[in-house]
Task: structure prediction
Amino acid sequence: MTSVAITGLIYHAVSRSRMYITWDGLALIILYLGGMYVIYQNLL
Result:
């Protein structure tokens, strides 16, 4: 997650597209949800 955040700081999204969230924000959300799934998959 840290590497995605650092890469997002180095390579800014130059053009403002119609998407509200950028690629680095989307990658952080996916990594966070994937980590939560791995941690809590045995508790269900």
